[in-house]
Every structure is written in structure tokens, then in C-alpha cells.
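so my prof wants the structure for this chain in the C-alpha cells format not the other one, which i didnt know existed until like an hour ago. anyway here's the sequence
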Amino acid sequence: MLGYYFAFALLMCAGIFFTKNRLIARLGISFFLMIQILLNIYAFFHLDKIDSLYFSFDKLGVLFLTILSIIAIPTVYHSFIYLREDKTKHFFHYLVALTGLMTALTGAYLATSLTVTWIFVEATTLAAAMLIYHDRTAAALEATWKYIFVCSIGIALAYMGILFFSSTVQATGEDEMGLNTLAKMVANTEPIYLKITFLFVLIGYSTKMESFPMHTVGIDANSVAPPPIGAFISTTVVNMGFLVIFKTYAILAAHPEVHIWMNNVLIFVGILSLFVASGYMLKARHNKRMLAYSSLENVGIVTIAMGLGSTGYFVAILHLILHSFTKSSLFFQIGQSFRVFGSYRVAESGNYLKLHPTGALVLILGLLCITAIPPSGMFITEFLLIKSLIFSGKWIILGLLVLFLCFVLYGMATRFFHLLYSKPVEEVVNFKPEKISFTESISQFVFLGIVVALCFYQPTFLTQYIQDALLPLTK
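here's what i got, hopefully its the right format
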């Protein structure tokens, strides 16, 4: 099935690229989106089945594939709105790249080989770079080259880790890079080699997870990319980065000494991510950049949760799900705010509640959700994380976590309140605010409604599904 999917994706990209008809291009990517959803449904009916030599519908991969399919729907919709005035060939390039990015992410989610996963992760770099450069501004050019350069370095580091691990595997008589095979022989491997492998993989794929130390590339990319693409990259690509790191972590965790060491490294990286995010947030001057710093903060929370071991895995997965719905909603709405303010700069934003009440309500609810204030479902995940830190006696980590979260809350709240209620400090000259239909905010209300609902009730099927998905990787 995945072979047919990839072949169809290639044909669809070629068709959109060479057609000169905008309506046909729109219909083409809409049809591909339908195929994406059908593949997702097929995957649910074939959970844990091997689809081909290098892919399988494992539960965790299918879970993130579902998030991708859901977020892709409003992403395509808001992309149509964003591109409505684009009369150039860039319109077709945008749709081709978005189709390619969805395809590459699907391959990375479902791959069972470290090498094949690496190939699809690299493919996401090329597709995302094309989307980041869509507006053809000087800032977009700088961010695109930085994205390609830093991600390429990161991918190279990750591949060095894979090669290093491969040589270690071959020394034991194994040459298969499948996840299940590797996990069986790790316990008898020299721990220093496994630690080096994990460091390479963690640093390399942090370009995709947007965590410390390669976080800057994601911040710049999300700041200049079209808002629908910022919503897509800061959620689905971040989820991919987490997944490939977590799968590698799950393999190496079969060695007890390495497992404890990796947990300490992850907690350290998570705290540093929170520290950097809180510092940047306090001096944020750009609305989309502020959301990018928020992604770094939430990735730090996820990394700390993963470093707590089995007690934190569930928290990490659930937090990523809630973050995906919340962050995509905020990016979609910030994209609408640009049509009201004519700028993404904080100083040139203000009075949003008066100018666009529906959108302002989205931002108010989104602020509550992203900062984990009840009734946000993210309050539950952060509460569980704090509870785990208390029970494990990690008081210093707990103190730093709470301190940095307070800084982030203050930074985001002050900027949101200015955007919503205050008059702009600086006026955008010769700009007429656009009247925006309330229908454009429906997707955000739906997503945020899900986040709020999960604060009060976590369905048994969801919690059981996540626990079942984690079982093969953590047993």
C-alpha cells in the first residue's frame, strides 16, 4: 500500500508542477489529501502489520500520522487563502512542496529502518526549504539557506551516529538495521559506543525536533515561513524529530547503563531548551517568532518527560498531541492577524479584540492552552510531569522547570495582552485592515476545543492506545 502511495505522490507532484491551471492544482492537492486520509484509515485497520521490507504500521507511527492527516486539512485550506493573490508560478511550487513534505513525513513516521528513516528525514529538509523560501524576501532567503545548511549538518551528524552504530552491530555479527533486530543485541554491546551513537543522533535530529542545541534553525524557519507552513512545520516536523530520537532511544535503552545515562542527557537538554526559550521569550519582538520560542519551550518539556523513563513516556506523547493542535491553531490565527495589522511585529500590533473579535477569542483560548492554564489539556500533562519529578526526588529540576515556565508565561501573556487590548506603539503606514470571515477561525476553535476537552476527560481508547504504542518500544 505504501508503495502505491509513494508512486501516487510522485505523480501528483509532477502533475501539479507542470499544470498551468490553478484550479486543477487545487483539486490535485485536495485529492492527495483525501488519499492521505484514506492511507491513515487503512493503517488503523492494519496496525502492527509490515507493509513492505522497510515500513510497518506500528501504533506510534500511525498515531503521529493521524495528527499529520488532521492538521493537513486546515493547512491546505489556509494555504489556499494565503495563496489567493499569488499569480506567479510560486503558487504551484508551494503546493508541490507541501505534497512532498506530507509524503516524506509519512515515510519517516512508518519506516522500520534507521537508514530509511534518515532518507525521509532528509527529504523533509528539501521540501520544507522550498516552502520557507516561498515569499522570496531577504529574510526568507537567509532562513532558507540557514535551514538547509544547519539541517544538513544535523542530518550528517545523525548519519554518523547510524554509521557508528552500524559498525558496532557488524562487529557482533549482525548487519540488519531494523529496529527490532537492533534492540535484541544492544545489551551485549560496549556502552561507550552506544553513548556516542545517541549523542550524534540526538544532536543531529534536534534540528527537526527544534530542541537544544540546534534549535535556532526551527525558530528562524517558523518566523519567516507562510503561517500555514509555520503551523505544519512546528507540529508535524517536530513530532517526526521526536519520533526518530525516541525510537533510537528505545533501542539503546536495552542496555541498563546506557539507559540511565541517556535519561540524564535528555533531562539536561530539556532544561537547557527551557532556559533558552524563556530568555528568548522575554525579548520577543515578532509574533511568529514568539510562537517559535514557545515550541522550543514545549519541546523542552517533552524531552524532560522522556528523560524520566517509563513514567514520562505517556506524558511526552500526550503533550505532543496537545501541542500540535494548540500551536497550529495559534499559527493559523497569527496569519490572520497579519491581514489586520499589516505586520508581525509586536510594536505594530494591537486592538485585535476590536478589529477581529472572533480571532481575538481564538488567541485568548490559545494563550490559556499553550501556557497550560486550566481548562487546557496541557495542564494535565505538565501536572503529571511535575508529579513525576516530585516522586523521583528531582527537586532541582522541578525548581528550574517551574522558574522557566513562569518566565515563558510572563513573556507570552504580556505580548498577547498587548496584541489583544493595547493600541499599536507604531503604526503601519498606508495599510488598510482586511475584513476576515469568522469561518476562517472554525478550524482553530475545533482544535482548541479538543485540547480543552482532554483536560476534563481523557478517553480510554486514547490512553490505552498510547500505552499499547509504547509497549513494544519500552518493554
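also thought this was worth mentioning. The mean pLDDT is 92.
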